[in-house]
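Researcher: I'd like a structural prediction for the single chain below. Treat it as a standalone chain; there are no partners to consider.
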Amino acid sequence: MRPLDRLKVAPSSVEGRRRRHIGTHSCALGLALSLFWANISAAQSSTGPRTTILVDRDMLPAAGASATVTVGRIMAGIEDRFVPLRLFEEQGKLRRATNAVYRLAKLELFDDPQENWLHVANHELFGHGGRLRELFDGPVHYALPAPPPYGRGGGATYFQLDRNPTVEEILSVTVGGMEANRMAARILTQDALTSGHWHYRDARRYWYAEYDTIHYIRHTHDLEKEGHDVSDFIKIYNEVATNNDEKTLDARTLRRYVLAGFANPMIAYAYYSAYISYVWSGHAESPVPMIPIGATRYLPMVRFQPTSFGTEWVIDNAFVRNGRFIDATIRAGQTIGARTWGVGLQSTRVAVWKQWTFDGEGHLWRQPEWGGEATGTARRRLRSGLSIVAQGGYKTNGFLAGERIHQGAILRIGAALD
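Model: Treating it as a single chain, here is the predicted structure.
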């Protein structure tokens, strides 16, 4: 079998495709940075998780998702300052019911449209847009309608390619939107599990981000219009598979595979936090339970995802002990004519030296070629919980969610508020 990165696709077959969801490049990045610095005190409570924003050259999914989560938290923090949690003291069934109706209306008419818009913007801007900025120099344009119930919602990325893409490259653009939201969900998961609780807006943001892939695939059929991410993924993959006399994919199979994503307790926690803890009980924050193993807490999470080489199942094994987050990842998948696999390990607070804290992450895979990635993150505390952050490492060719497709150095800088 020939590796996917050696197979070419004519640019005329992919130029100008419409991607549902959204984006915008420099203006949104500037908005994220300005909001972060101007309103940083509103982003989190003193007991909340660390809020980190990272910037790299192309604002790839990993960095872009951090900007999306940060903007969402700032918006929620400002809202908490000015919008009350309840209209009346909850004394008696009538007042409690009235407060619950008020919170439900606020969630559906005020909070949800914001989170919907953010997840669509993340999908387009840092997903499709991030991959296009990384790989090509052609023009890219975005559309961002108002979210329901104030507009039709959704969004689109329009682009032209400046050269012939490889199959791996065009598949990475096609699945990039879902990938970006997976990275946002990853940030929110780590923060929630480490702190043991989350704000209902973080929970709602997580639901939109994590459910993006599930919803997209579950609503995919064989006769979708051009520009539908999952349908385009299937068509491109099957063209190569057919040319190589290998097994093809179909929408029905993917709809069945993606059901594995429901074996993720965080999705249930997100529903509970928004509709039970917040709407009914009036609590802005709710606990995020894990399985106790002595002094360690553990939570397994499963998901299915399309990638730049094919499809992949992922099992995340998250551990928290003494404020340290550790995630051991196992991946198994299928590319054209071969099985794939991967393993990864991520840990916060690998080392602490004076005002510096160091995190580490490493991955090894076969897709079907061997590859790997290693990164380190350094934080230095400055004042009032504010830290500067630098992340560096190296990655070989291959797909790793959030990171560059081709081999090269990884470099990001940013800031964090503990």
